Amino acid sequence: AQKVTQAQTEISVVEKEDVTLDCVYETRDTTYYLFWYKQPPSGELVFLIRRNSFDEQNEISGRYSWNFQKSTSSFNFTITASQVVDSAVYFCALSEPDQGGSEKLVFGKGTKLTVNP
Amino acid sequence: DTGVSQDPRHKITKRGQNVTFRCDPISEHNRLYWYRQTLGQGPEFLTYFQNEAQLEKSRLLSDRFSAERPKGSFSTLEIQRTEQGDSAMYLCASSLAVGTPLRGEQYFGPGTRLTVT
């Protein structure tokens, strides 16, 4: 069965600090996809990144970076020089590619990030 | 606005009443998903449609829940005889699944928050 664990329930930082959100996943499949979504107070989930299981290269997008390590089944997310607007709940999610079924997402419980000015 | 829209955004109902929610996906997206999110949890998959066909339903979707997607466009989710445990945010997502295997990023709507009193 698929499972995503985000052990950090809440994190609070001061603006300009770097922060890393942890994500550990479980799956029996060799082919799968990992995602990060942001949920600001407005409630709408915002897609941030998708990574397939065959691509372990780290990715950087502006102040965001992702570290995918299959050996530890982790897909961690780092925000550099955090800003108040980064305050949100961040979800890590896992899916399997379509095999005649859905690409339903299995989410972790989320990490609430508060960035204080 | 070309994103996923949901209506209503908030619904308060008394236990035992029926409610219906609507989701309008991004135009030409062939897949539509329903998720449910309770406080402090990540979204949980309920069901999905490939065009107008409902192809998968979660065990979370009891007999009181029914979803439709006539003509493969908008979708409705109906809950009959609501219970207090149905109180949650109901999220809709759509994707354009292409390729082999079919895959596509899911884009979420703002959700409908249901409160059953």
Write up this protein.
- The complex is a heterodimer of chains A (117) and B (117).
- In chain A, strand 5 and strand 6 form a beta hairpin.
- The N and C termini of chain A lie far apart (41 Å).
- Chain A has 117 residues and is mainly β.
- In chain A, strands 2, 5, 6, 10, 11 and 12 form a six-stranded mixed β-sheet that branches. In chain A, strands 3-9-8-7 form a four-stranded antiparallel β-sheet, with no helix packed on it.
- The model of chain A has no long low-confidence stretch (mean pLDDT 91).
- In chain A, 0% of the residues lie in helices and 50% in strands.
- Chain B has 117 residues and is mainly beta.
- Helix content of chain B is 0%, strand content 48%.
- Chain B contains no helices and eleven strands.
- In chain B, the strands form two sheets. In chain B, strands 2, 4, 5, 6, 9, 10 and 11 form a seven-stranded mixed β-sheet that branches.
- In chain B, a hairpin with a 2-residue loop joins strand 5 and strand 6.
- The N and C termini of chain B lie far apart (33 Å).
- The mean pLDDT of chain B is 92.
- Chains A and B meet through strand 6 and strand 11 of A and strand 4, strand 5, strand 9 and strand 10 of B.
